[in-house]
Write a structure and sequence with these properties.
Layout: H1 5-14, H2 26-43, H3 53-63, H4 70-73, H5 75-103
Length: 104
């Protein structure tokens, strides 16, 4: 599956939250997509097409609580930053799977 917003949603559905092991609710998934759209709008990025790991790691640092775009990351009580962390994990996971498929 290509890296996409729909793929991200499926990744979140299958993922387990770090705290407590509970699954992401549909409300959380919707909030995370809204958070990523907020980052995209505020920083003028095509976030759903951004798949370069180095650039994503830099964006994550920039949107972190001490980063240059910390106010963007704090959107909705930090939901935007948490959504971005999950996007980075999703892109890494999917990128690895795509690479493995291409080399087999």
């Amino acid at each position: 599956m290509p890296i996409s917003q729909d793929g991200y949603r499926q990744f979140l559905i299958k993922s387990v939250k770090e705290q407590g092991g509970a699954r992401f609710t549909q409300g959380t998934i919707d909030s995370y997509c809204t958070g990523l759209n907020h980052i995209a709008n505020q920083l003028n990025l095509a976030i759903w097409q951004r798949t370069d790991s180095a650039r994503l790691e830099q964006l994550l640092a920039d949107c972190s609580p001490n980063g240059q775009h910390a106010t963007v990351g704090r959107y909705s009580k930090g939901t935007a930053f948490n959504a971005l962390k999950q996007w980075v994990q999703y892109v890494k996971k999917e990128g690895t799977q795509i690479w493995l498929s291409a080399t087999c």
